[in-house]
Amino acid sequence: MSQKKSLKKDLYKHPDYYLMDDLLTPEHQLIRSTLRDWVKAEITPIIEDFAQRAACPKQLIKGLGEMAAFGPTIPIEYGGAGLDYISYGIMMQEIERGDSGIRSMASVQGSLVMYPIFTFGSEEQKQKYLPKLATGELIGCFGLTEPNHGSDPSGLSTNIKDAGAHFILNGSKMWISNAPFADIAVIWAKNENGIVRGVIVERGFEGFTTPETHGKWSLRTSATGELVFDNVKIPKENILPNAQGLKAPLSCLNQARFGIAWGVLGAAMDCYDVALRYAKDRKQFNKPIASFQLQQKKLAEMITEITKAQLLVWRLGVLKNEGSATPAQISMAKRNSVETSINIAREARQILGAMGITSEYPIMRHMMNLESVITYEGTHDIHLLITGMDITGENAFGG
Ligand code: TGC
Ligand code: FAD
């Protein structure tokens, strides 16, 4: 794989219009500056090249582990960093400032693989998998979505049957991040009674394959694939003993959606930061384009929306630390942050004119990435319906 590095200087400095830094502890600020330096040194110089080639920069895995980006809130005794949720949010924000595909790799590992093993797993499963997942020695993926069930996972048809000495798993999953190279997969399947259970499937189990999905114009640095189970024998000790029902996988989504709500604002701030600098520098009609009212309107609206979203995710972080954040509050933040970010990316791209469509600048890559983020972990529409149901008490999902 190419190790081609760009010589461009990464000048990123995050906007902080309402002095949000005053709300962070010195530890939060240290985490942020450490991650930021790492992103500038390791992600920025290579990411455009990998995105152009639709390749996953797996060499970043070790560093992500060293930065504690895998499972930062998991207790230290299991290899995690034992940090609070604002630290987790800050980490995802810095990484996604670099690239949403790399943040995906980290948030799937921490929120969708380590979290369910930590929350629903046996002590043996925690000891066996969590420390290796924390360092990146093992990479995991999370299989909920199926070819015929995306927004409505309750209809999933992947199934496990008790065969005495072991379980037998059949079915398939689609659109799974990290699938093509994951060492383990946390899979959600129905048992004979139609109850959703979680199982840990290891690469190498006979009948388990992970074909890669090609041709994505979005999230090109993240490897996506299918998971196919053809009479796969699952050892009894690989079932998650404490996960029963759809609530278990949906509760994992809360963790990942929280990370996304913070994370995508990193992409938005990068777009704003680049566009502001470009607008001050670029002259047309003998004046910097930043002096034109139409460009100021774009930039002023961007910083307003970023500031509102920063406040919202910070408050959500406080509620999450207190253990009182509701799934519906997390949905609102995921939806708001992604909408804010995708709109900012689109406006920032226009400020750069033709330069905005090139890989000289990160904006078009962020913009394309966000088209996945607005769909995965619950689509934009689904999160709106979750808010609608929460405030009215009426379920508008149908079914
Ligand atoms: P519903 O009857 O509402 O719920 C079933 C049970 O689950 C509970 N529940 C939740 N619990 C915790 N957290 C949540 N977020 C929860 N949402 C629901 C609910 O209270 C109920 O509990 P109980 O005790 O009554 O049994 O289920 P439903 O079938 O009507 O569906 C509701 C809906 C549509 C909101 C849900 O299915 C949904 O969220 N759909 C979207 C699917 C989705 O987000 N998929 C994501 C797949 S993973 C992914 O995209 C990874 S991207 C990775 C990357 O970053 O690269
Ligand atoms: P559908 O559910 O078919 O929805 C299509 C459209 O219909 C959407 O606009 C939706 O909002 C709308 N719609 C659906 N139901 C309703 C309704 N009741 N009312 C109004 N509108 C509705 N999944 C995993 O399990 N693990 C992963 O690691 C993972 N990674 C992913 C990575 C990428 C790059 C992508 C793109 C997806 C990934 N997903 C993953 C899958 C993702 O969670 C699903 O794509 C998502 O939940 C939506 O499902 P769907 O694509 O089948 O769309």
Strand content: 5-15%
Query: Order of strands in the sheet with the most strands?
Result: 2-3-7-6
CATH topology of the largest domain: Butyryl-CoA Dehydrogenase, subunit A, domain 3
Bound molecules: 3-thiaglutaryl-CoA, flavin-adenine dinucleotide
Count up the domains. 3
Q: Uncertain runs with pLDDT below 50, 5 residues or more?
A: none
Give the fraction of residues assigned to helices: 40-55%
What is the β-strand count? 9
The rough form would be described as globular
- Main sheet, how many strands, which sense, barrel? 4 strands, antiparallel
Task: Explain what this protein looks like in three dimensions.
By secondary structure, the chain is an alpha+beta fold. The protein has three domains: 20-135, Acyl-CoA dehydrogenase/oxidase, N-terminal domain (Butyryl-Coa Dehydrogenase, subunit A, domain 1, Orthogonal Bundle), CATH 1.10.540.10; 140-244, Beta Barrel (Butyryl-CoA Dehydrogenase, subunit A, domain 2); 248-392, Butyryl-CoA Dehydrogenase, subunit A, domain 3. It has ten helices and nine strands. The chain has helices at 26-52, 60-66, 85-98, 100-120, 123-135, 247-281, 293-322, 327-351, 363-373, 380-392; strands spanning 140-143, 159-162, 166-177, 184-190, 196-202, 208-209, 224-235, 283-284, 287-288. The strands form three sheets. Strands 2-3-7-6 form a four-stranded antiparallel sheet, covered by helices on one side. The model has no long low-confidence stretch (mean pLDDT 97). Bound molecules: 3-thiaglutaryl-CoA and flavin-adenine dinucleotide. The site of 3-thiaglutaryl-CoA (TGC) has 25 residues, from helix 4, helix 6 and helix 10.
